[in-house]
Amino acid sequence: MARPHRLTLVGRSRDGAGGPGAHRVVIVGGGFAGLFAARALRDPTIAVTLVDRAQHHLFQPLLYQVATGILSEGQIAAPLRDVLKRHRTVDCVLADVVDVDPQACTVVAERPNGERLTLAYDDLIVAAGVRQSYFGHDEFARYALGMKTIADALAIRRRVFGAFELAETATDPDEQRRWLTFAVVGAGPTGVELAGQIRELATRTLRREFHRIRPEDARVLLFDAGKAPLASFGPALSAKAAAGLHALGVELHLGSVVTGVDARGIDVRDGTGATQRYPAGTVLWAAGVEAPPIAKALADATGAPRDRAGRIEVEPDLTVPGHPEISVIGDLMSRDHLPGVAEVAMQAGMYAGRRIRHRSAGRPVRPFRYHDLGSAAYLSRGNAVVSAGPLKFGGFAGWLAWLVLHLAFLTGYRNRVGAVLTWAAAFARDARRERTFTTQEIETLRDVYDDAAEPAEHAKEGRP
Ligand SMILES: Cc1cc2nc3c(=O)[nH]c(=O)nc-3n(C[C@H](O)[C@H](O)[C@H](O)COP(=O)(O)OP(=O)(O)OC[C@H]3O[C@@H](n4cnc5c(N)ncnc54)[C@H](O)[C@@H]3O)c2cc1C
């Protein structure tokens, strides 16, 4: 529960940089959009406060590799303070933004220990991303894990590797088969990558490690309501993806709508209208996104329109209608049907930062224009598909392009070197070194902060 104590920060900056009277910019979210906006706001007259509820910048496109034991969380996430340490006018604040008051030009944020902050701004950039959508069936979330955060990827790792362990000791053949069945919902890039990786780890990495089960017997079922996997890549690459998945042994179920999920499996309605039950020990959800609650709070406060997924519809300069001081960027913005991809978020972040700098210097600002540099999806080792303008290719050339693209955008030198070494080991020797998981949640974070705020009983009594 939130504590009543309120602390007000007013556009502070490190070492007093920015100075009193500096232009105060608050950025909500340190993902691709927020980070690139903060970098573009490098200016001694601008004091930036970057608020994120996580302490790190996360490279979401590689979450599936954390989930399936290839990379560690530190290889795809870098502390925001570290990434921005040379930006002396940027202050990083760990807090969850819960409300916006456009009249007072403030945002309200809640810290992990329950404290509330009020942050004043001259310009506000909201870059809070999106969250998993269960299309009105939030009850599925308990059994069908989504993948948006480090915590999600580690939870999936626990469930995937844990399923093989439970299959090994199951005495009932049906139960063993259920543990060895993995259902993935959504055949976009995330679902395709997850499905392919589970089959690859079953057929390669785990092949010789178990005594009672054959990990390569694991079934991976990939469901999608549409007609093709990776539909956004166009028919030619979709066909390549379908062939690649087939070669890996992934069972593709297209035209299939998930109607129920519980602890023991899923119910799916196929194209004929018939519903079938699939027992499965692990269900993973990669089928859609929606705006987080902060988007509703912003829309309620400003009257901003929202699209069907709840994202804020922005003007050509990425601001909220009637509020040139509030920008919404990245996955959370809705504009010209731009896709929710990292490249859009990065370009929007750079634009929003530059726009604020130009506007405060009285210079004219052009509308935002997105330059599509293409996209890539990983199928299996040595096989990826790439779509870049008229260029569409797959196979090993696609995999090389995928590798270069991901290395170029991985944040931090150490992460890049670490990732290359790890990929080399995974590629050459089927080694997945990041398979550690625990079977119990450790939920002490809030307790730790509570203890610091209120002396523990034994300390009050003078005991050591
Ligand atoms: C599994 C997965 C795979 C993907 N693969 C690809 C790919 O291959 N290629 C590609 O181009 N794109 C891919 N994407 C999409 C890409 O990652 C997103 O488009 C991009 O991250 C969007 O950037 P963003 O800054 O808008 O949001 P995010 O990166 O989601 O960042 C939002 C930030 O805001 C913070 N935040 C949220 N709410 C609050 C709040 N209330 N208060 C404070 N902080 C808050 C979050 O902690 C987070 O740090 C993938 C996404 C996922 C989930």
TrEMBL record:
Gene Ontology biological process terms in this record: aerobic electron transport chain
An example Gene Ontology molecular-function term: NAD(P)H dehydrogenase (quinone) activity
Cross-referenced Pfam families: Pyr_redox_2 (PF07992)
FAD/NAD(P)-binding domain segment(s): 24-349
Keywords of this entry: FAD, Flavoprotein, Oxidoreductase
SUPFAM superfamilies (alphabetical): FAD/NAD(P)-binding domain
Cofactor(s) recorded in Swiss-Prot or TrEMBL: FAD
Domain of life: Bacteria
Keyword Phosphoprotein: no
UniProt cross-references to InterPro entries, sorted A to Z: FAD/NAD-bd_sf (IPR036188), FAD/NAD-binding_dom (IPR023753), NADH-Q_oxidoreductase (IPR051169)
Family named by the database record: Belongs to the NADH dehydrogenase family.
Protein's UniProt name: NADH dehydrogenase
Source organism of the structure: Pseudonocardia halophobica
